[in-house]
Amino acid sequence: MIIKHNVQLQPHNSFRTKALAKIFCEPQSAEELSEIVNAFPNERKLILGKGFNLFFTKDFDGIVIKPAMHGIRILRENDRFVEIEAAAAEDWDHFVKYCVDNGYAGIENLSLIPGSVGACPVQNIGAYGTEAMDAIVGVKAVDIPTGGCVAFSREECGFGYRDSIFKRTALYAITSVVFRLEKSFQYREKYIDLHRELEGIPSPTLAQVRDAVIRIRNRKLPDYNLLPNAGSFFKNPVLTEEEKDRLLSELPDAPVYTTNEGQFKTSAAFLIDRAGYKGKRRGMAGVYAGHSLIIVNYGTENGREIVDFMQEVQHEVRQRFGIMLAPEVRIY
Ligand code: EPU
């Protein structure tokens, strides 16, 4: 395995901010990953997927490890379901397409989400009423402090909304993910946007659902090649009853959903809209005109400019509605 020094991270984050990694490597197997963490016990470590959910504000004084293990294999199957293990560096949408093409149902709503398979459990990616945790049955990883190989059941992953044990502790480097997918598919309405897109199709197939998701995403979300961004920048805020009541007294038309845990969730995009920030630009950072949850980069290589703008949006939303938006994107 080649160990590189002073590597530019700009091509490795979709916001395209500049920063140097003191050390950088791309292990091709769990064994190589294990070797590398053991070889540098005292260095800070960052595990990087395809960099679609993070950006850099300064150089990284440590080792950046970009898993490079590939492969998709069926572990077992019967006439109802299939269990598939996909390696961390597999492209997420490539894996979704493979499943849809083979008639394996469960992750089609997660079509076109950028990133790698190994990153999907970290923030429990979600869209159109489906979350990665619905299909994941296990995760294999290297324990960074010891270099040992570990396996997690779904319960041990501690999944939550855009959250998991991997995100909370940053102690594990994921090497592969095991999914359990159904061999039969019956479309059920889960999300109004997707349902509208499928109008007129009486019993949509897996491929039709995937195509509909791709159409919605292409319409709503900016192309990161043209306008660098990291997808949803903020999480949708979870509110206490008091915060919810206060919000509704100020903005009676605010969307409020009840979560499975009996809390309340509202739309960060809606709050940013109402704070007057839709399409607003400050210097080289701005809120995307087509969807307020996305901060776009108009041309800076300095992550600080993105952070300054993030703080301005947070400040405005808090001043007006008493709600602090938390970034979903990770900032280094
Ligand atoms: N809305 C606005 N203004 C906008 C956009 C949306 O007010 O500019 C309001 C509307 O009320 C709309 C509601 O927000 O009904 C929800 O919008 P949308 O369906 O686009 O979903 P979202 O809550 O903004 C979440 C995920 C997305 C995911 C979509 C679709 C988070 C942080 N984001 O966005 O995930 O694609 O649902 O399921 O949970 C990502 O994580 O990077 C991401 C793109």
Describe the protein in words.
It is built from eight helices and 20 strands. It is α+β, with helices and mostly antiparallel strands and 332 residues long. It has three domains: 4-65, Uridine Diphospho-n-acetylenolpyruvylglucosamine Reductase, domain 2, CATH 3.30.43.10; 72-220, Uridine Diphospho-n-acetylenolpyruvylglucosamine Reductase, domain 3 (2-Layer Sandwich), CATH 3.30.465.10; 238-331, Uridine Diphospho-n-acetylenolpyruvylglucosamine Reductase, domain 1. A five-stranded antiparallel sheet has the order 6-7-12-10-11. Strands 1-2-5-3 form a four-stranded mixed sheet, with helices on one face. A four-stranded antiparallel sheet has the order 13-19-18-17, covered by helices on one side. A hairpin with a 5-residue loop joins strand 10 (136-143) and strand 11 (149-153). The relative contact order is 0.13. The model has no long low-confidence stretch (mean pLDDT 97). The structure holds uridine-diphosphate-2(N-acetylglucosaminyl) butyric acid (EPU). Uridine-diphosphate-2(N-acetylglucosaminyl) butyric acid is lined by residues 127-128, 191, 193, 231-232, 235-236, 255, 267, 269-270, 273, 278, 291-293, 328. Uridine-diphosphate-2(N-acetylglucosaminyl) butyric acid (EPU) binds at residues 127-128, 191, 193, 231-232, 235-236, 255, 267, 269-270, 273, 278, 291-293, 328.
